[in-house]
Specification:
CATH architecture of the largest domain: 3-Layer(aba) Sandwich
Distance between the termini: 31 Å
CATH class of the largest domain: Alpha Beta
Order of helices and strands: EHEEHHEEHEHEHEEHEHEHH
Strand order of the largest sheet: 8-7-6-9-10-11
Oligomer: single chain
Helix content: 25-40%
Shape: globular
Number of strands: 11
Number of domains: 2
Radius of gyration: 19 Å
CATH superfamily of the largest domain: NAD(P)-binding Rossmann-like Domain
Structural class: alpha/beta
Number of helices: 10
């Protein structure tokens, strides 16, 4: 039986229990064990020797990656991981969110206007992953907005150094409404909460060419003001639950060598947020 855990700054235990159940339904005996480990106290990865698989949030991952002895060249280039599998050679990190973005972008295909820019809200691991996936899909011009410019500056510096030919620049929150309508995609990597003033600024969608696309990575039973405005404006959208379901299906295959039904799992995951 495989034992696994998750390290995150937020509690998603109900999601992991749902995935554990989906794996058991496919005959994979496994146990999800909620972590009680204090991240700041970790000095090496021996603490996790009892686990076969670990899921990582974008905020926690950088603190864990520094202990890794080996990783793929692409993971190094991406600078983001969202899980690790224990192998005979040690822990091997991968990023299912990046692959999930790739799946969605391939499905959209010609509907995407890569001549337009991509406006990314946020400056964490999810934002880095979105930029990398969009760049691989053919987008070259990116705009980044965030609550704190210092965080965005770090992201912009690292992205410029890693992806040759990518153009990226900072947009202050108060300047969003002044942007010309030249973006064809918006990616929201910030929380879907009422006190998120950035979502209000983005919801005007003045910068977005119609019909345009919204990729909203926040997961909530109640649509944010940004999602609501996108629906009213006829903007096509992919929500955070879709991305969460896709990443979990990928990790089921990567971490447990088990294929679970993506559509059925997505519906169960969606119901758990209601």
């Amino acid at each position: 039986m495989k034992t696994w855990t998750a390290l995150s700054s937020t509690n998603e235990d109900s999601r992991w229990q749902l995935l554990s159940e989906a794996l058991r339904e496919k005959g994979m005996e496994n146990e999800f064990v909620p972590s009680t480990i204090e991240i700041s106290q970790i000095e090496n990865l021996e603490t996790f020797a009892v686990y076969d698989h670990i899921r990582l949030s974008s905020r926690i991952a950088p603190q864990i990656m520094k202990f890794l002895k080996v990783q793929s060249s692409w993971t190094t280039l991406l600078g983001v991981v969202d899980g690790m599998n224990r192998t005979e050679h040690g822990w091997w990190p991968l990023c299912a969110l990046y692959e999930s973005f790739g799946q969605v972008l391939i499905q959209l295909g010609q509907d995407l206007d890569t001549r337009g820019s991509v406006l990314v809200a946020g400056a964490g691991g999810a934002a880095r992953t979105a930029i990398a996936a969009m760049f691989k899909a053919g987008f070259q011009n990116f705009l980044v907005t965030n609550f704190f410019q210092e965080e965005a500056d770090v992201l912009i510096k690292e992205v410029r150094a890693r992806f040759f030919g990518l153009n990226i620049q900072w947009v202050p929150m108060e300047k969003i409404v002044l942007l010309p309508g030249e973006s064809s995609v918006i990616v929201n990597c910030t929380p879907s909460v009422e006190e998120n003033a950035l979502l209000v600024e983005l919801s005007y969608l003045n910068f977005l060419k119609r019909p345009g696309f919204l990729f909203d990575l926040s997961r909530s039973a109640k649509p944010s003001v940004l999602v609501q405005e996108a629906i009213d404006a006829g903007v096509r959208s992919v929500n955070g639950i879709e991305f969460a379901a896709r990443t979990d299906v990928l990790w089921a295959k990567w971490g447990f060598q088990t294929d679970i039904d993506g559509e059925a799992y997505r519906e169960k995951l969606k119901s758990s947020f209601v």
